[in-house]
């Protein structure tokens, strides 16, 4: 039994005539008659009572008509869904992101444009640090991620540079009431710092520590926290200073001052990374939106 058998049967049943069904489907009348006969033989049942006035469904035919119409409707719906999924307009897309990257700049616009373009895509956004995103990309658990890459990427990953931020020092606002506003890291080298554990992102941790050491101002860490949100909350409480991403200026904590230093610069390029072999059509659709937005607002470096 094939789908054409069902389509021919439904047309004949609804029109009450093989001749009318043939005209509607642009198929010869003998061909439709033969297909319906083959269908009845396959079912071992008579679907129509035939008379000079036309076709009348038997009780078996009435039952089969209802089910055949449901089957054809399901097939048509599946075809539509498959087409939209192949076009990247439905399906599922799982992306990682760093929290501060969504507070301003390019990424919020890209996410908004994609949701407008493909509202049927189930978009899952996971807040993860860069190192965790790269690990999950390697494991195939993410379709893509917004990261700050330090060091080389695996050869199977593709990268799009989006915008470059730098580091700033985050100070408890209360400190500035009894100290000059620092211009260099060495001005606050004797102060306590909140840092992150090395395992969070070893490549960036080592780069930051080396840069501070080269200035003769190694960070005196008294506390660690695993996210910049947690780090800034500790800075807000007055526990210490911190070196953080300048993207935090999009959402500055009320009790923290974010200050550029003349002697410390660590450019960090927010980039979108994905496996080049990822076949997910929703990812291709997302990349098209991302590339279009990059043309509107070219990467800032």
TrEMBL record:
DNA-binding listed as a keyword: yes
SUPFAM superfamilies, per the entry: Periplasmic binding protein-like II, Winged helix' DNA-binding domain
GO molecular function: DNA binding; DNA-binding transcription factor activity
Record domain HTH lysR-type: where: 1-58
Any one Gene Ontology cellular component term annotated for this protein: protein-DNA complex
Entries under CDD domains matching the protein: PBP2_LTTR_aromatics_like
InterPro entries per the UniProt record, alphabetical: LysR_HTH_N, LysR_subst-bd, WH-like_DNA-bd_sf, WH_DNA-bd_sf
Keyword vocabulary terms for this entry: DNA-binding, Transcription, Transcription regulation
Family (UniProt): Belongs to the LysR transcriptional regulatory family.
PANTHER family from the UniProt entry: HTH-TYPE TRANSCRIPTIONAL REGULATOR CYNR, TRANSCRIPTIONAL DUAL REGULATOR HCAR-RELATED
Name of the protein: LysR family transcriptional regulator
Lineage, highest ranks first: Bacteria, Pseudomonadati, Pseudomonadota, Gammaproteobacteria, Oceanospirillales
